[in-house]
Design a protein that fits this description.
Actin-binding Protein, T-fimbrin, domain 1; about 75% helix; single chain; 17 helices; mainly alpha
Length: about 625
């Protein structure tokens, strides 16, 4: 227990407990030291729970009882399953205190592993200070702004709060393959640093977190996709990526091509395409009048328009024969404009009528074409029926001979079918056997491939688990190296190792001695059983021999009585020896219980309880006197 106590004392010193150098075991712990050690450990394990516990006992007895009860409740809250109460702290018991301290030391959190390039130094101290400050701030309850006092301004000031605003970042990713020189020059000379890319300095942290989260989620999605679909495709990662990219490009091209194709009616070229084009042009020109839209017509349209324009000019612009007044010229122009507008409206009406007629004719043409196709199909079927009927009519004049020939042909066809069926069966049996063999080989190959695929997946899982375990072990190794460097140098590892080896050797010796004692006990028990059986058998034989002679001789009869008395006295003696051994064992058990009670300091604790009881009575008397005076 000395080594265990030294380890406990060393750990308690590390968490901040002030243990004097004179204290070398848990037996020397006082109630104040026990309370301080337990509270320090609870504050490290659960800062929110330990912040409300005092590190020292108050002077009043009632307050001490309350502190003991609160400490016992806190220990139960963090998972202690042993018997605990206020008496554990006020009237300490060495085994109970040792088990409690061992539980608390085991529940202490381990320090986070440091990176390999920062084993010790100022950075480690700074990180620990930051972690302690964050833990302290998290332990403080949040208060609304209206309820905050001036002393809360440092820990709960709203000045440091910023909205989570994210902006895209450009990061110079390092790749193993060849990289263009222009990209390298751009990243080295022109690309600004990450802290200068966001428009606001408050968005830097949010943007970096968002960027890293997106990259991490993309990597995780790729891992899950590769494990679920990539391995099944039996391709390399590069081939799988290129195949996926090609498939996405083809899908995008198909979508664009389907969106760019015209409708099904306009594909056949009819009035529908003209109407769609006119509607499209109407949609583009908006509310502009029809006469202000520039249209592109055919050569016939341009010739007709040019002729009509010349005729109109010839009619409407006669050569003036005399002087005409300006009013007559304006009136004539208005009349010509009205007539031209009327003609234009008539032409528009004709064009609309022609367009409607073209649409109607197109629909009619489609219907006629469909009807023509159906009639052609009907005519083909009728022609086939006519051919069959014609052949039948040609065979009617010589019906008997033709019927015999037809039956002969039917029998020949049946024989030919049977011959072909027998030949097919000859070819079919090996083909079916070959098909079954190939199918079995294929199924075996599928099973083998699936088995290998499952093995590959399991290997990937094992590799991932091994990688995670290696990372954890590396972190644990770094943490242990840091703790080793932070440990005091006066305690050498060889001394602890030597002590551990000595403890192990002592345990081995004790086990050997226990085994030897058990074997000796078994041998003694066997010998006792043999002697007891031998004694019973000897007495039975002697009793039988003496009893036979006792019927004839009086002296032998007395010897038989003495033999019976001797056997009874021997049984009493053996029973007395067994009772003596039982009593000796009970005495040893009682002595061990007495030693345990002495170790529990029962008498001293009773005296302390009596003193505390007297102190409580005095406090009650003082309080009663104050109440009377009041």
């Amino acid at each position: 227990m000395e080594e265990v106590d030294k380890i406990l004392i060393h750990t308690l010193k590390q968490v901040g407990t002030e243990v004097s150098e004179e204290v070398n075991s848990v037996k020397q712990f006082t109630s104040e030291l026990i309370v301080e050690a337990v509270v320090r450990c609870i504050r490290v394990i659960d800062p929110g729970l330990g912040s409300a516990l005092p590190t020292s006992l108050p002077p009043g007895m009632s307050a001490r009882f309350r502190v003991g009860m609160s400490l016992a409740q806190a220990c139960q809250d963090i998972g202690y399953k042993g018997e605990i109460g206020y008496q554990t702290f006020l009237y300490s018991n060495e085994p109970e205190i040792r088990s409690l301290l061992m539980f608390l030391v085991e529940r202490l959190p381990r320090e986070s592993a440091e990176t390999s390039d920062q084993p010790t130094g100022k950075s480690v101290v700074l990180q620990r200070a930051i972690a302690a400050a964050i833990k302290a701030q998290l332990a403080v309850p949040w208060l609304p702004p209206n309820c905050r006092l001036p002393l809360h301004g440092e820990t709960q000031s709203p000045g440091g709060l910023q909205s989570f605003h994210v902006q895209p970042l450009s990061l110079p990713h390092c790749t193993k393959g060849p990289t263009k020189k222009e990209l390298i020059d751009y990243q080295r000379d022109i690309l600004p640093p990450v802290t200068a890319q966001p428009s606001s300095h408050a968005s830097v942290v949010a943007s970096i977190l968002e960027q890293h989260t997106a990259e991490l989620s993309a990597a995780q999605e790729w891992d899950s996709e590769w494990n679920s679909q990539g391995l099944v495709s039996r391709l390399t990662p590069q081939e799988y990526r290129s195949r996926k990219l090609t498939r996405l490009r083809k899908r995008a091209e198909e979508q664009l091509r389907s969106a760019a194709l015209p409708s099904a009616e306009s594909a056949f070229g009819g009035p529908r395409s003209t109407s769609d084009l006119s509607e499209l042009l109407q949609a583009f020109r908006g509310s502009a009048p029809a006469d202000q839209v520039l249209t592109k017509g055919s050569h016939f349209t341009h010739t007709q328009k040019f002729t009509f324009t010349q005729e109109a000019a010839a009619v409407t612009s006669p050569i003036p024969t005399g002087r005409q007044s300006e009013g007559d010229v304006q009136l004539r122009q208005e009349e010509e404009l009205a007539s031209l507008q009327q003609q234009f409206q008539q032409l528009c009406t004709d064009v609309d009528q022609l367009t409607a007629d073209m649409k109607h004719m197109g629909v009619t043409n489609t219907q006629v074409l469909d009807e023509l196709k159906q009639r052609e199909l009907g005519n083909t079927e009728e022609e086939e029926r006519m051919q069959v009927k014609k052949k039948t009519i040609d065979l009617l004049p010589d019906a008997d001979n033709n019927l015999v020939k037809f039956q002969a042909q039917v029998e020949a066809s049946a024989k030919r079918v049977l011959h072909l069926a027998s030949q097919w069966e000859k070819h079919r049996a090996p083909l079916i056997e070959e098909h079954r063999t190939l199918k079995e080989i294929c199924s075996n190959q599928d099973l083998e491939s699936s088995r290998k695929l499952s093995e590959i997946k399991s290997l990937h899982d094992k590799i991932r688990v091994s990688t995670e375990e290696a990372k954890k072990k590396e972190e644990i190794y770094k943490q242990l190296v840091t703790e080793l460097e932070n440990l005091p140098q006066d305690a050498s590892r060889s001394a602890y190792t030597q002590r551990i080896l000595e403890i192990v050797s002592n345990i081995k010796k004790q086990k050997e001695e226990i085994t030897k004692i058990l074997s000796d006990t078994k041998e003694l028990q066997k010998e006792i059983n043999n002697l007891t059986g031998k004694l019973d058998r000897t007495f039975a034989v002697t009793d039988e021999l003496v009893f036979k002679d006792a019927k004839k001789d009086e002296s032998v009869r007395k010897s038989y009585k003495y033999l019976a008395a001797l056997h009874e006295n021997c049984n009493h003696l053996i029973q007395t020896i067994e009772d003596t051994g039982t009593i000796l064992r009970e005495i040893r058990d009682l002595e061990e219980q007495i030693e345990t009670e002495h170790g529990n300091k029962t008498v001293a604790n009773l005296e302390r309880i009596l003193d505390d009881y007297k102190a409580i009575r005095q406090e009650n008397s003082a309080l009663a006197a104050k109440v009377r005076e009041g």
